[in-house]
Amino acid sequence: MAKMVELVAEKHVEYIVSVEKKKDAFESVVMEHLRMNGAYWGLTTLDLLGKLQVVDQDEVIPWVIQCQHESGGFGGNIGHDPHILYTLSAVQILALFDKLHILDVAAVTNYIVGLQNEDGSFSGDMWGEVDTRFSYIAICCLSLLHQLDKIDVEKAVNYIVRCKNLDGGFGCNPGGESHAGQIFCCVGALAITGCLHHVDKDLLGWWLCERQVKSGGLNGRPEKLPDVCYSWWVLSSLIMIDRVHWIDKEKLANFILDCQDVEKGGISDRPDDAVDIYHTYFGVAGLSHLQYPGVKAIDPAYALPVDVVNRILIGS
């Protein structure tokens, strides 16, 4: 049997730090509007590798706070419009650094509460796009802030249940095609609200396990190519419904490790493609779920290291 490639953790740390420094590079310009998400992906990866201290939090924290709007929501960067996507990333970054106490929690809460619609769904921002991703984000964000009781949780859960399909999966809205990313959002929201009884765990578990292809990687829908990011979306969902033993973990770990740039660091969507911060995070997070040595445990519902979630929710 061929020797398994090792995780080049130090190279990944160097890669993440270098991405943050290259402000004028093409990738940075393209990512500028969602820098908050990029910061969350990079910083969480560093924490999972036990290296969060390499970042100067006195630079990061003021920048995060500057991205907050009068509405309470956060933009993807300074001067950009607020959106629920960036708001969760901002809260998660502050959580990593144990700085949630500096946040205007009431303003953030009011912003998210204002995005809940009459049918229980959530819009992403003032323009009104509705998606189960936003339901998950609202529930995750408010739970981390101990403000979940401020929305109509029952209506929110009922809307998510309406997005369940005959194959056991979930879509972005009622009738939408089942997709591994949306399944994570719906299962995560149901897990946080204590409503996983709405999930047909065997049926959904079967659908999710069918996402593993010959290479060991996972795809997001039938007939699609495998992609490292589904190591997170699919694995997290399987863990939350207690069916993770239904896939070949060793083959998946090998697939993720084969997507590394072992010389310059970073992880790509599939072997030999260009690396990026997004897939680096999801690759390392996937290895965390596979209990890879040297990678901290990550919470499958909150997408933060387990010790961070315990500190916030249990105070330990």
TrEMBL record:
Signal peptide: none annotated. It is an enzyme of class 2 (transferase). One of its GO terms (molecular function) is metal ion binding. Residues 8-303 form the Prenyltransferase alpha-alpha toroid domain. Belongs to the protein prenyltransferase subunit beta family. Its cofactor is Zn(2+). This is Geranylgeranyl transferase type-2 subunit beta. PANTHER family: GERANYLGERANYL TRANSFERASE TYPE BETA SUBUNIT, GERANYLGERANYL TRANSFERASE TYPE-2 SUBUNIT BETA. Heterotrimer composed of the alpha subunit RGTA, the beta subunit RGTB and REP; within this trimer, RGTA and RGTB form the catalytic component, while REP mediates peptide substrate binding. One of its GO terms (biological process) is root development. The keyword Amino-acid biosynthesis does not apply. It comes from Spinacia oleracea (Spinach). Required for male fertility and root tip growth. Its EC number is 2.5.1.60. It holds the Pfam family Prenyltrans. CDD domains: GGTase-II.
